[in-house]
Amino acid sequence: MSNKNSPLIEFDSVVKRFPGVVANDGVTFTIDKGTIHSLLGENGAGKTTLMNILYGLYQQDEGSIYLQDEEFKIESPTKAIELGIGMVHQHFKLVDNHTVSENIALGLSTASTVRPTKDIKRKLIELAGQYGLKVDPDAKIWQLSAGEKQRVEILRALYRGAEILILDEPTSVLTPGETERLFSVLEDMKSEGRTIIFITHKLDEVMEISDVVTVLREGKVVDTVDTASTDKSGLSQKMVGREVLFDLEKPSREIGPAILEVERLSALSDKRVEAVKDLSFSVHEGEILGIAGVAGNGQRELAEVLTGLREATSGKVLIDGKDVTNSSPRNIADRNVAHIPEDRMHQGIVGDLTLKDNVILKAYRKKPFSRGLLINYNLVDEHTRKIIEDFDIKVPDPDTPANLLSGGNIQRLILGREVSSNPNLIIASHPTYGLDVAAAEQIRQLLLEQKGRGVGVLLISENLTEIRSISDRIAVLFEGEIMGTIESGELEREELGMLMAGSPLEELEEKNR
Ligand SMILES: Nc1ncnc2c1ncn2[C@@H]1O[C@H](COP(=O)(O)OP(=O)(O)O)[C@@H](O)[C@H]1O
Ligand SMILES: [Mg+2]
Questions:
Q1: What is the pTM of this model?
Q2: Quick check: CB of 238 below 6 Å from ligand 1?
Q3: Do residue 333 and residue 444 come from a single domain?
Q4: 270 shares a domain with 225
């Protein structure tokens, strides 16, 4: 082909917009042949979108993609496959009722039906043997574990001649042992000259498997570096960014008694591995405790246990001195606990319902909104209008369906609803995630106001600048454990970055001595 030194893939100023968000905002970087190239970034950074463009699932709005200096419009996955590009999606695209070899045969131009020919089966077994990707060609997809399904997807891509293989967060469905096996398969492919694009938000994996890493943040490339010339702490800083904040005034306030006490709490993840490990901490009235850390280190599980959505396997949760361990979400909410959930579209609001209905989702059982079995709609209307006004929600009227609101407006609606019940404790999970700078500032300001009123706030966030700007104390979570708790302002960002990458506080103190 063309110039040997030219990059295999070049993204040049790629822009992709979705309603209300620029998912890829002028993305420019190159990928060399025969390398494992990681795409690192927080949730929402734009990794999947960019790769969906390369795989022909989406078209960019602006910018170009070059393969060995030649510009291509990749208008469909068929075209991508033709160009030697394969993709293993985060959510597998296999047909459950079909066998492994039928799935491989599906969509192959040589096979007229889903009936795999002898040839297909033979080649599949050969490929599987060559890469140690063990699967039974006659097994139905539904019988397979997630790890096995992933092997089928990889085999399918290889079968179609993928020279470039994109893997979207492939380890999220794997056990540690399966991850190691996958990595050795990827190494084998690389040694044959194939190119791997590895999407992840896990720093360990980037350092372990990739030659080069491109860090994306809010749709933009932060940096592309050789992994040999960086480390986890450097990467975590790039990932969480250095966004400039307006100076927020922290209301000074006497720290009161503990409102939330967590004692030696443990809990399992969905995959049944320990995600929260023997955690102890407390949040006091009039205090914001920030929980910092890279996503996936137990934050979600912790928030879920505290709000009654996940079972604690051991330990205790006390709210206002009362043991609420493994109480229902409703019982916990009734202890004047407000919750700003991580997944605001699914847990925070019901999109199809109007603002009004969303506002009374939780309060409908209580006076003054309910009169026996009836709901006092006039009062609800009045209350919703007040929230709309107080929290600056841009919406024509209270009867608008909530899913027509932008992210910032939805978040203010949730906060408004939660705060209007006069909570003593707010558990806020990534409250500004996905919001633009101004909307994020407003949410932080609102949390500070609550603190000023004596409310205790547990703020879980990946955004270090945010955590530092409004927390009184910061606890850093790594692999389900607190690496250290510090007064805000005590440690610099770099040091927080180290804690987030798993170096305990004592080690840092040793170093500084
Ligand atoms: N099909 C879509 N429609 C609307 N918005 C989308 C769509 N896909 C992604 N987005 C938005 O684009 C941004 C980037 O998302 P994504 O590429 O999935 O990020 P990542 O893979 O890094 O987590 C997010 O704000 C997301 O909500
Ligand atoms: Mg993604």
A1: 0.59
A2: no
A3: yes
A4: no
